[in-house]
Specification:
The protein is of the alpha/beta class. Strands 2, 15, 19, 20, 22, 23, 24 and 27 form an 8-stranded antiparallel beta sheet that branches. An 8-stranded parallel beta barrel has the order 3-4-7-8-9-10-11-12, surrounded by 6 helices. A 5-stranded mixed beta sheet has the order 16-1-21-26-25, with no helix packed on it. The radius of gyration is 23 Å and the shape is globular. It starts with a strand and ends with a strand. The relative contact order is 0.16. The structure holds alpha-L-arabinofuranose.
Length: 501
Amino acid sequence: MKSATVRLMSCANVGPIDRRIFGGFLEHLGRAVYEGAYDPDNPLSNPQGFRTDVLELMRGLRMATVRYPGGNFASAYNWRDGVGPREQRPVRADFAWQSIEPNTFGTDEFVAWCRAIDSKPMITVNLGTGTAADAAAWVEYCNFPGGTALSDMRIANNAGDRTPHDVTLWCLGNEMDGPWQAGHVPAEAYALRADQAARLMRGIGAAPIELTAAGSSGRTMPGYMQWDRTVLEYCWDTIDYIAAHRYSENRANDSPRFLAEGVEIDSILDDYAALLRYVKARRKSVKNVYLSFDEWNVWYRARGEGNWSHAPHLLEEVYNLEDALVCAQYLNAFIRHADVVKLACLAQVVNVIAPVLTRADGVLVQSIYHPFALMAEHVAGVSLTPFVGTPLYTAGDRGEVPVLDAAAAYDETTGRLCMSLVNRSTTDALRVTLDAADLTMQSDAAGELITHDDPKAHNDWDAPQRVTPKALAVEIGDDGRATLTLPRLSHAVVRITVRKR
Ligand code: AHR
């Protein structure tokens, strides 16, 4: 068996991990909202029309925030269509996904859904076909305490409840660099739109809000970094975050290469870290802008056609073990870059490229659910820099990459150390030693392991637990070091109580 070591030191850390890296994304797309989150005629739904089995699984993901209503959908969406008495809401043709949108689920329902899963809403305003005034009006509708036409409308639409929706996270449009996007414009034009919207939205002043500008929609875009630089240089003073998106693919069916996705994700995060530093320096600014990785996942198999139907089966990707291992690497990379990444959203949450699939009589938990749920539950505190000694393997055109991908979190208040470890090897198990210079590991170590012999193993309605976490043995030696075995193709989340030396 091959071996690897991870060395830690409590002072070698990159700062606090923002819990909002454990976010999700719910778009009006396919069966995400309708038949996913909201299904009022289904016996499994509560009086609000929310599927209770979906709510329960969402609670298990402990998502700090959920982004809504898109995605591409957001760029031609009129938020006013989705509020008020349902019978008066218009049915619309959705430009983004060629579907029929009944608008029976809108802002008020979304905020209530977030409350039901103990999460915070993040709303993307329409900067495609919409105006800065529309965006500011949406903020006013959500956050103003009362006494204005829009805030009183919210109160009336919510049976007299005066509690503001208190939406603090707002995205200034979506993927505006993409020619597929409604209202797509060059970077300079988008920067003007975003800056104007930001100023108006903040100007409503009812409550402080945080704003994310749309970054380049992926590393393969011709304007990657150039778009982001233009937007950052123009909007630096009015935004808090720039958005990054990535969907990982294994079209060539090359698992060793695919399993090295973390190398690419790290490199994207390094690109943004460098750009953010550059723009800050150019502007001689004391302010920081951070990264919001507000769409990430594996997605390359499922698409489908909208055919102008309601809730069509779109993007219903079936996830396997190797996809779960890639998802774990996204989260590991966000933790390692905790000083840059403050927000991130798994795209998406139900039915559409999602950890959960529904049918009329139940829910299916997909493989990618598990790394997210485990890490969202156990990762807390500061991100410790893992000094990793690991064998390498050949990952196609990515060259020689580390077999072991590791991230570590240390919560000084509870004395808990949490490590997330991925063995990327398709052939070899790995004996891993964990060693913390100034932290003695105590005996109460625990861990969970996600693995399978077959990288393509997936859960389905006949075998819903094929890929599911199992207990992992973690041994603590007299020398205060921990050892464990990672089978090939595995992800482990390990928790150890530590004492400072
Ligand atoms: O998440 C699916 C789609 O992917 C989103 O609508 C869009 O932002 C991205 O291209």
